[in-house]
Structure formats: structure tokens, C-alpha cells
């Protein structure tokens, strides 16, 4: 059956930077065929040729535009005009496209209006599994707006047709967390507060807000990163073994542990990079945070006393996303080996820019010396793999096309993630203007008293 992807918001950053490269790769891998279609909707009256010329200036990757041109169609479209939805419906039907994905690469406040148009025009009928609808994050701007949006969506669509994106879930090493944890018995036995000293979840970026000032200034790091990507990573690390490894059971286990997660509001550090106020489309007196540090705990027996540290921000010293599991030392370590390095055993899930798993441990220095040093077992996920590894959006689009919901967030996950941050959202947290990450580290260490080695 011929498939189509309809993208609302095709002149946005996300389409240029993520969706077009993902579509290009899917075509190269023959996961999208030449008679499949990608409809690009936007309220500019331009030709496909012109669209492609504009896109070429935005897309960083080398795409095969000649092949892409065969599957792309540009549609002049107004989100608030029902006739445009109806015309689109006729166009899809007349061209024989009945297996359709509608991708809303739009701000969340537009979700209800577009969902209504899609439903009222008959583009999607509630319960019809051949029609799926994809929503980008953030899903809402706070708990209340997320609930309102979701209520609206459930009027028009069945939950089985709704795909809520968190692109971190499509990343190779995030998919790998459950495999490493549950396919290796060694971790099954040790994955709790008895053995684990703390968990550090980091997503540092070197870029600033770039052309996304308009979006970012209303959202900030707390809602842009922590509420979604970082909490999803925490859920995968903290959850207990699901009943099965089927989509719904994994989601149940995530929701359960997220319900136990409490942020310590007194630990929170907000920062804003120096120069943020001069960026495009940022309010002159903006108090939006571009950095957040927060400490949290899972309030359950498995994790009692083991803190989780979240760190994310823009314009920092490096682009690095990883999860560090810091293990406790043997209680008698220094009696056994007086020169052993304390706090030296850790497992690191390297999410980006490299993908892999690193295990750091105490080992004897080679040679005549009795010194103890750090050794590393370093697995590179992509280095020795001959074949295709996928980018997150490619995997997620592929899964939507194939009705696979495992890597998408269910409503109750979104709801509990908003609940977790809602207390902080309403607090007046001081904002530190920073020049670099060292500046923020100093604040975390001195003002918040957090052991810097954990960072
Ligand atoms: C997006 C955020 O969800 O994730 C961006 O909106 C952020 O602000 C991006 O830059 C980071 O994703 P990645 O895959 O580059 O780590």
C-alpha cells in the first residue's frame, strides 16, 4: 500500500534540520518508496522548486534532492481554513493515499485547531489505524494546557492513533538502556541504592538558541529539555523490570517510577548565557533560563537515598549527552587497598556525540608499581558496525509508518512529567548570568553543596 507523510509546519526549523534528512535516509534505505509521498504544507504560495531552493540554505546535510523531489509535494495551506483540509483530503484520496501519517511540526498551542481541522474534514476518522497523527514536543506549556490539549485530541482520535514525539527515545543508546540493564544479569542484581551512589543525567550543548528565539524564550531549558528528554532518561534508568518488554508494559513501568520522582526545589540552579538577550526575537528583559541544574530522588525502597542530578543547558563547554551511574565503593576499600581510588567505579551511557557504553573501574598500574589507576572498558556502538545506524528522527518516522508505538510517550507519562516540574515552574528561582560552565559548576558546588566529582 502506498504511504504518505503530511507535514504541517514544513518551513520550520524542525522540518529542515531533522525531518528532511530523515526522509532522505528512509528513501536511501528503501523504507520509503518512490511512489510514497511527502506533502509539505505551508502558508507560502511557492513552487516545490522554490521550497527546495530555500530548504537547501537551511539543511546542513548533503541530501539527494533529485530523488527527494520525486516524493515531495508542496501544498499551499492555511491552518485555519477548513476548505484547505477538505481539498487535501480529496487530493490524498484521488492519488490513492489511504495509509497516512499527519505530522504536526508546530507549536503546541496550534494542536487543537489543526486536530479539529483534520478530524472535521475526514482526513482522520477516530479509530482508523491506517491514519496516525504525530505531535512534536513540548506537549503543552504546563500541566493545565497539556491536559486541555489532550482532552481535545481524545475527542477526535483514539489513543492508538496519537504519537507524541520525544526524539531522545529514538536515539540508539537510549534504546539500549533497557537491553544493557535487563539482558545482563550483573546489573539486575546491583541496580539499586545499595550499590549505586548517584545518577547524573547530562545534556550539554555548545550552540545558543540560534533561529529559535521566538519558541525558546517562552519555553526555557526546564520545559524544553528537563520535562521531556531528561525525565524520560531518568525513567528508563529508574524503572523496575517491566512485566514484558512490550510497549504498554514498558510505559507502565516508566509511569510507576516517574510517580515516585521528586525534584528537590531548593537544589535548583537556573542560568542564562551571557549574550542571550542580544539574540533574535528574545524579550529585552527576558528571565528565561538557558541552563538548569536540579537534584531529585525516587521516593521508593529501591532507590532510597540515591540522588539523581540533572544538568542541561545551551552555550556550555561541549556538546555531550550522557547518563553516568556512579557506583559505591566497597565499605572496606581502603583497608584492603590503601591506595585505591575512591568513587572510581562508574558506568556511562554515552548518548551523543559518540554512542556507546563505558565502564570505569579500579585496576593495578602495569609494571612493578602497586599503584591503582582507573581502567576503562569502552564499547563504541557504531565503530565496528558495518551497516546502517539510524538517526533518531529516521527511526521514529519509520516506526510511525509501521504502527509501532514503543518509542512514543503515552499521555500518562506526559502528565506525570508535567506534575514533576510544576512546583519549580511556579517558583521564583534566581537567574545566574553565565559565561561558561565553570561559572555554573562553582555555584552548584559552593551554593548548593553538591560534590563536584558527581558532575
Ligand atoms: C530539542 C530541543 O528537543 O532537543 C532543542 O528543543 C535541543 O532545544 C535539542 O537543542 C537537543 O537534541 P540533540 O538530539 O541535539 O541532543
- State the end-to-end CA separation: 50 Å
Question: Please, how many helices?
Answer: 14
Bound molecules: 6-O-phosphono-beta-D-glucopyranose
Largest sheet: 9 strands, mixed
Keywords:
455 residues; alpha/beta; Dihydrodipicolinate Reductase, domain 2; 2 domains; nine-stranded mixed sheet; six-stranded parallel sheet; 23% strand; globular
Topology:
Elements: E1 3-8, H1 13-28, E2 37-42, H2 48-58, H3 65-71, E3 72-76, H4 82-94, E4 99-104, H5 111-120, E5 131-135, H6 143-156, E6 162-164, H7 172-182, H8 185-190, E7 196-204, H9 213-238, H10 247-260, E8 261-273, E9 291-298, E10 307-313, E11 320-327, H11 333-336, E12 346-352, E13 356-364, E14 372-380, H12 392-401, H13 411-425, E15 431-434, H14 437-446
Parallel strand pairs: 1-2, 1-4, 2-3, 4-5, 5-6, 7-10, 8-15
Antiparallel strand pairs: 7-11, 8-9, 9-10, 11-12, 12-13, 13-14
Helix pairs in contact: 1-12, 5-6, 6-13, 9-10, 9-13, 10-13
This protein binds 6-O-phosphono-beta-D-glucopyranose (BG6).
Task: Briefly characterize the structure.
With about 450 residues, the protein is of the alpha/beta class. The chain has 2 domains: about 5-165, NAD(P)-binding Rossmann-like Domain (Rossmann fold), CATH 3.40.50.720; about 170-455, Dihydrodipicolinate Reductase, domain 2 (2-Layer Sandwich).
Amino acid at each position: 500500500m502506498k504511504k504518505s507523510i503530511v507535514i504541517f509546519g514544513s518551513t520550520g526549523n524542525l522540518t529542515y534540520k531533522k525531518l528532511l534528512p530523515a526522509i532522505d535516509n528512509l528513501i536511501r534505505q528503501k523504507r520509503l518508496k518512490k511512489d510514497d509521498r511527502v506533502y509539505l504544507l505551508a502558508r507560502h504560495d511557492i513552487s516545490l522548486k522554490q521550497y527546495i531552493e530555500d530548504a537547501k540554505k537551511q539543511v546542513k546535510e548533503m541530501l539527494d534532492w533529485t530523488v527527494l523531489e520525486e516524493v515531495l509535494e508542496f501544498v499551499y495551506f492555511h491552518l485555519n481554513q477548513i476548505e484547505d483540509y477538505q481539498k487535501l483530503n480529496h487530493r490524498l484520496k484521488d492519488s490513492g493515499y489511504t495509509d497516512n501519517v499527519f505530522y504536526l511540526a508546530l507549536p503546541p498551542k496550534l494542536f487543537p485547531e489543526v486536530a479539529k481541522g483534520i478530524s472535521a474534514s475526514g482526513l482522520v476518522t477516530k479509530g482508523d489505524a491506517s491514519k496516525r497523527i504525530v505531535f512534536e514536543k513540548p506537549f503543552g506549556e504546563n500541566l493545565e494546557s497539556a491536559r486541555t490539549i489532550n482532552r481535545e485530541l481524545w475527542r477526535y482520535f483514539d489513543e492508538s492513533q496519537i504519537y507524541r514525539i520525544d526524539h531522545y527515545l529514538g536515539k540508539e543508546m537510549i534504546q539500549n538502556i533497557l537491553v544493557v540493564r535487563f539482558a545482563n544479569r550483573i546489573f539486575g542484581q546491583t541496580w539499586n541504592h545499595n550499590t549505586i551512589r548517584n545518577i547524573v543525567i547530562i545534556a550539554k550543548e555548545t550552540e545558543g538558541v540560534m533561529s529559535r528565539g521566538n519558541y525558546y524564550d517562552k519555553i526555557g531549558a526546564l520545559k524544553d529539555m528537563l520535562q521531556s528528554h531528561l525525565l524520560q532518561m531518568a525513567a528508563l534508568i529508574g524503572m523496575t523490570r517491566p512485566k514484558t518488554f512490550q510497549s504498554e508494559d514498558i510505559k507502565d513501568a516508566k509511569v510507576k517510577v516517574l510517580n515516585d520522582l521528586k525534584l528537590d526545589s531548593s537544589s535548583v540552579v537556573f542560568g542564562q548565557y551571557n549574550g542571550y538577550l542580544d539574540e533574535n526575537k528574545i524579550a529585552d528583559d527576558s528571565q528565561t533560563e538557558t541552563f538548569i541544574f536540579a537534584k531529585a530522588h525516587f521516593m521508593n525502597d529501591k532507590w532510597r537515598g540515591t540522588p539523581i542530578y540533572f544538568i542541561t543547558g545551551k552555550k556550555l563547554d561541549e556538546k555531550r549527552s550522557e547518563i553516568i551511574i556512579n557506583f559505591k565503593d566497597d565499605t572496606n576499600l581502603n583497608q584492603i587497598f590503601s591506595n585505591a581510588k575512591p568513587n572510581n567505579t562508574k558506568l556511562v551511557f554515552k548518548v551523543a556525540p559518540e554512542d556507546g557504553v563505558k565502564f570505569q573501574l579500579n585496576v593495578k598500574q602495569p609494571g612493578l608499581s602497586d599503584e591503582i589507576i582507573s581502567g576503562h572498558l569502552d564499547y563504541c556502538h557504531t565503530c565496528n558496525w558495518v551497516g546502517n545506524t539510524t538517526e533518531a528522527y529516521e527511526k521514529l518516522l519509520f516506526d510511525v509508518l509501521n504502527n509501532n508505538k514503543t518509542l512514543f510517550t503515552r499521555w500518562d507519562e506526559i502528565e506525570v512529567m508535567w506534575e514533576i516540574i510544576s512546583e519549580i515552574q511556579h517558583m521564583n528561582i534566581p537567574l545566574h548570568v553565565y559565561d561558561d560552565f565553570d561559572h555554573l559548576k562553582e555555584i552548584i558546588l559552593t551554593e548548593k553543596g553538591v560534590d563536584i566529582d558527581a558532575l
